[in-house]
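Researcher: Last one for today. Full complex below.
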Amino acid sequence: MTREKSIYDLQAEICKVLASPKRIEIISALKEGEKTVTEIVDILGIPKPNVSQHLAVMRLKGILKSRREGVNIIYSIANPKVIQACSLMREVLSDLLTDRSKMASLLTRSKSL
Amino acid sequence: MTREKSIYDLQAEICKVLASPKRIEIISALKEGEKTVTEIVDILGIPKPNVSQHLAVMRLKGILKSRREGVNIIYSIANPKVIQACSLMREVLSDLLTDRSKMASLLTRSKSL
DNA sequence: ACTTAATAGTTGCGTATATGCATATATATA
DNA sequence: TATATATATGCATATACGCAACTATTAAGT
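Model: Here's the assembly. Have a good evening.
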């Protein structure tokens, strides 16, 4: 009775991983190159366990990979296409914001110079 | 006290819209061209209110747009970049699946022919 | 070599919040 | 009135977060 997962389900799971501000920020940080957990913690400025949880989610889904180096565990992006996907999302967002500000300026055009 | 939304928050909101199997299926259907709600209902095979809710979410976020034509309301994709983003996600997924099957065949290589 | 301590990271748990769906009801056009 | 679509409500599930406890690696002291 275990319902088989469709392509749509699987694709949604990937998207779900990227549907978190913190995780996007992590990916954005790792774009520059691999980093230790502590470095990521310092960048995000949130509690370590929270970062660790997000990293675990992304590692389990295959978005990130990790290796140990002495005391540290170093995370990096497993598949560069994820970065592309994120950039595209950002473009979509930026298009939306421009459209929205266009609309906003139509609605309040006197105020917005 | 209303916390200002960061770029990451906004981007996550876009991703969240795409983080649903049903919504991905809707986008996939609309890739071919605009469709009425009933047509989409027939394609997905789920209750009409459910479809309507998903459509509303995507319209409010600016992913879809709609217009009325007589009795029908016709939905279409507002920004083609969303389609690209979805394709990229699909590629990421397909890469993940290949890697995973590679790993799987290493682990169970005797059984898997 | 054995113990202790310190640092890095993970895991478990309780809770608050959000999301998806089903059912029922409402609105709009013809 | 009939058809197309939207909204409201309630519930079940999932998720993020904070906090506490745990594990693992390295270094220091004896």
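The first strand of chain B starts at residue 35 and ends at 36. Helices of chain B lie at 7-18, 21-31, 37-44, 48-60, 81-107.
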